[in-house]
Design brief:
Oligomer: single chain
Number of helices: 17
CATH superfamily of the largest domain: Metalloproteases ("zincins"), catalytic domain
Strand content: 15-25%
CATH topology of the largest domain: Collagenase (Catalytic Domain)
Radius of gyration: 31 Å
Largest sheet: 7 strands, mixed
Cofactor: Zn(2+)
Helix content: 25-40%
Distance between the termini: 34 Å
Family: Belongs to the endoribonuclease YbeY family.
Number of domains: 3
Structural class: alpha/beta
GO molecular function: endonuclease activity; metal ion binding; metalloendopeptidase activity
Keywords: Endonuclease, Hydrolase, Metal-binding, Nuclease, Zinc
InterPro entries: Cof, HAD-like_sf, HAD-SF_hydro_IIB, HAD_sf, MetalPrtase_cat_dom_sf_prd, YbeY, YbeY_CS
Shape: elongated
């Protein structure tokens, strides 16, 4: 069975630790289930921390070395196997000798006279997060597993199955039964699957028998069941029931394997095990079909080309999925920001969840860095542990300013001074509002409501009014300028004029309908993203990019997966791999929940 560590938790009432003592292990309280109690002949424990022990010789708590697992040298079954060959151990079962388990003291309940004692250990693999749902499920399994064992044992008495291995036929001859169940992640079960079956892929459940009938032991060492919570969560979503329901189904499947059923040896054996799964689940009153039937239904649906179920993961469930990308590069205006220039709470939660799972979110925008920090601060995404800060990497001002590790500037490019002068003179003479961007500052020539809106609505730095064109040009180096006008004014007047006027000296970009940007030729968000990836030692294969405007085209083309929101320009949607929901429909969150994991 899985390592028994109860001796490390003796005595039951050790002397209290001195106030200066340093705790050596985390203690996670079990959920209180006052209204539920296990059968009187069931003994169950939840494994939460393996190494905390009390030394009676020194009267001190200490950390004991990990016990050697007894999982090695056993045969086991898995749901998916391509051939019918008998499994043989390939060596040590653990994927890593450093694997440990969290455990609390087993709570024993006196069994009734002559009743079979069921000893069940529920363990949580160390790399699974301390998730309330997982801990609650572990506590429920402490009650559910003995129930399932009792019903399954009763079924053996009247069993007339032809294909079941009858090495275990009557459990009444044993004093007690031992069973362990381990909840783990995909990586752990994948390595276990590789070491024992030479199959390098994730599976949902593995069963490992420890029964040795030739030894005539008074204790039935039934074995171990290993369940991947991550795979179970995905299957639960696909099959439309709760995670607890799916784990119960997997536990029943694993238990029947330990009792001699094997669906892999023949069609008749598969039919018999499928029937017993359904009977057991029905007897226990648990939801869902048996695992064999569920797998068959999934295969049938795939072969018949039926419409696939919605592949969007549920909010709050990304912890059960492995990220497909190391980076998400995300635009701001028209993408992360909705039509009110706000970040929705749904988008904010999706970004936080992605970051918590180790995905690095990098902003790539035409905005200045202070504007991005201000916008994300409103939803608690700015700062050291957020998405953006003065010390985080990012691509700003359409790729003209790129910040790398520790927020250090790694690239800056300025607009041709002659183009700057011509644009400023045009603004002054035609009274068309203009903003000149210089790193974290904005400059303008006169006050205007549109200039104010850039600060109040778009959160750009408040524009400083310069007394003349010469004063503005002499103040600082300018990276880009923006003309502000109506959508019609930009489309019919400004864009045609400046496309012709700048020609080979600059590029005009229209990120939003009522603004026209003039930037140095040959620069774009895409080039800025590429430069940042080189600086970080990463490649485009590691990123997913989300945008909407024509200034996002190169970035989406560069990314392994480019997602254009449905409110984006036709040019942007034409180059994207996927067209997602609009910015007013939480398009960023939708993209993360569908494609990032």
């Amino acid at each position: 069975m899985l390592p028994r560590l109860s001796h490390l938790l003796r005595p039951l009432h050790p002397p209290p630790l001195p106030s200066t003592a340093t705790p050596m292990a985390r203690v996670i309280p079990r959920a209180a289930l006052a209204h539920l109690s296990p059968a009187p002949n069931a003994v169950a424990s939840i494994c939460l921390s393996p190494r905390l022990g009390f030394d009676t010789n020194t009267n001190r708590f200490g950390v004991s070395p990990p016990l050697k697992s007894s999982l090695s040298a056993r045969g086991f079954h898995a749901l998916c196997r391509d051939d019918g060959r008998r499994l043989t151990p390939l060596g040590r079962v653990w994927a890593s000798p450093q694997r440990e388990y969290r455990k609390v003291r087993r709570r024993a309940v006196k069994s009734k006279e002559k009743e079979l004692e069921l000893n069940v250990s529920i363990c949580i693999e160390e790399d699974l997060p301390d998730d309330p749902e997982v801990l609650s499920i572990a506590e429920m399994l402490r009650l559910n597993v003995p129930m399932a064992m009792k019903v399954a044992f009763d079924g053996l008495k009247d069993s007339c199955y032809k294909t079941r291995d009858t090495a275990i036929s009557d459990v009444g001859g044993f004093e007690s039964v031992e069973l362990s169940l381990l909840l783990c992640n995909d990586e752990f079960i994948r390595k276990l699957n590789k070491e024992w079956r030479d199959e390098d892929h994730t599976t949902d459940v593995l069963s490992m028998s420890q029964h040795a009938p030739e030894l005539k032991l008074p204790i039935l060492m039934l074995g171990d069941i290993v369940i991947s919570v991550e795979t179970a969560a995905r299957q639960a979503e696909e099959r439309g029931h709760a995670l607890l329901d799916e784990i119960r189904i997997l536990m029943v499947h694993g238990l029947l394997h330990l009792l001699g059923f094997d669906h892999e040896i023949s069609e008749e054996a598969e039919a018999e095990m499928e029937k017993e799964e359904e009977l057991l689940l029905k007897s226990l009153g648990w939801k869902g079909k048996g695992l064999i039937q569920s797998a068959y239904d999934a295969e049938t649906n795939a072969n018949s080309h039926e419409e696939k179920a919605d592949d969007r993961k549920k909010e709050g469930h990304l912890r059960f999925y492995k990220p497909k990308f190391n980076y998400i590069f995300c635009d701001m205006d028209g993408t992360l920001l909705n039509s009110k220039s706000q970040i929705s709470s749904v988008n904010a939660r999706a970004l936080k969840e992605a970051v918590s799972r180790g995905v690095k979110v990098v902003i790539a925008t035409g905005k200045a860095r202070p504007a991005v920090i201000s916008s994300l601060k409103m939803v608690d995404l700015a700062g050291k542990d957020g998405v953006v800060s003065e010390f985080s990497p990012g691509v700003f001002l359409q790729g003209l300013l790129v910040y790398g590790r520790q927020g250090r500037e790694i690239f800056r490019r300025n607009l041709d001074p002659n183009v700057c002068r011509e644009a400023c003179l045009y603004s002054w003479e035609n009274k068309v509002p203009l903003i000149a961007f210089t790193k974290d500052r904005c400059l303008t020539l006169f006050d205007d409501p549109l200039v104010d809106s850039l600060h109040t609505v778009y959160r750009e730095p408040k524009a400083e009014i310069m007394p003349s064109v010469d004063h503005l040009l002499a103040a600082v180096d300018i990276q880009k300028v923006i003309f502000l006008d109506t959508s019609a004014g930009v489309t019919t007047t400004l864009r045609p004029y400046w496309s012709e006027a700048t020609r080979d000296r600059a590029t005009v970009v229209q990120a939003v309908p009522d603004m026209l940007e003039i930037v140095p030729i040959g620069t774009s968000k895409g080039s800025g993203v590429k430069m940042l990836l080189d600086h970080l030692g990463s490649t485009a294969k590691e990123i997913m990019a989300i945008g909407d405007g024509e200034n996002d085209v190169e970035m989406l083309e560069l990314a392994s997966l480019g997602i254009a929101l449905s409110n984006g320009s036709e040019k942007t949607k034409a180059v994207a791999n996927v067209i997602g929901a609009s910015n007013d429909e939480d398009g960023v969150a939708d993209a993360i929940y569908r494609y990032a994991f």
